Amino acid sequence: MNQSRSSIRQQLRALRIGVSHAQRGAHDRAIGRNLLELVKARRARVIAGYWPFNGEPDITPLCRRLMAEGCRLALPVIRREDGHRMDFHAWREDTVLAENRYGILEPQETELLPVSSFDMLLMPLVGYDRSGNRLGMGAGYYDRCLVSIRDRETPLRVGVAYSLQETEPVEVQAWDVPLHGVVNENGWFAFEGRQP
C-alpha cells in the first residue's frame, strides 16, 4: 500500500463528511432497513450500537425501534479511570446520555454489558476493504475492547458505513480485529472466510 493509514483516513473522512444532507438521509434510511433485515435474519436480541460522530451513518432511529421491540441495546463508553479503554453499557429509552471528551454521547450510570453477551456488534468505521479489515479513527478503542473475541464467530461484527468508504486493501496490524461483514446503503456484504 502506497499511502499511509493516516492519509487514507483523512481522505475517507473528508468523503464521508462531504455527503450531502439529502443523500445522507436517504443512505441512513437504507442502512437502517438493511440492518433491521440482518437483525431479524440473525434473531439478534442483544446488540451493541454506537452514537454517530463526524459524519458516521446515523443508526439511532433503528436502535430506538429495536429497543421498542424488546431488544437489549448498548453503547460504547470510554472508561473515565483509563481513557485508553472502552466498554459497552446498557442503553434504554430513559437512559441519561452525556458527551464524552470527543463530544460523543454515552450512557451514564448504566450497567456494563460484557462483549461476549452480544449477538451483534454494530461498529462505525472510517474505511473497510473487501477482506473485512476495518480502518477506524486511529485510537484503537474497538481493537482493544474486542481482543478477547477476535477469533470467535460471535458476536457478529458488523461494520456500518457508506459504500464510498470502501477502500483498497488495508494494511493489517497485529492488533486489528476483523469484521464479519459490512452493511451500507446497498445491503449486507459478508466477507469471505469471515462469515460465521
How many discrete domains?
1
Helix share bin: 25-40%
Largest sheet: 7 strands, mixed
Give me the CATH superfamily: NagB/RpiA/CoA transferase-like
Question: How would the global form be characterised?
Answer: globular
Please state how the strands of the largest beta sheet are arranged side by side.
3-2-1-6-9-10-11
Binned strand content: 15-25%
How confident is the prediction overall: mean pLDDT? 90
Topology:
Blueprint: H1 5-17, H2 21-42, E1 46-48, H3 60-68, E2 72-78, E3 86-91, E4 97-99, E5 105-107, E6 120-124, E7 127-128, E8 134-135, H4 141-146, E9 156-160, E10 181-184, E11 187-190
Parallel strand pairs: 1-2, 1-6, 6-9, 9-10
Antiparallel strand pairs: 2-3, 4-5, 7-8, 10-11
Describe this structure in words.
The structure is a single chain. The chain has a single domain (5-187), classed as Rossmann fold (3-Layer(aba) Sandwich). It has helices at 5-17, 21-42, 60-68, 141-146, and strands spanning 46-48, 72-78, 86-91, 97-99, 105-107, 120-124, 127-128, 134-135, 156-160, 181-184, 187-190. It has a seven-stranded mixed beta sheet. Strands 4-5 form a two-stranded antiparallel ribbon. It has a two-stranded antiparallel sheet with strand order 7-8. 35% of the residues are buried. The protein is built from four helices and eleven strands. Helix content is 26%, strand content 22%. β10 (181-184) and β11 form a beta hairpin. The protein is of the alpha/beta class and 196 residues long. The mean pLDDT is 90.
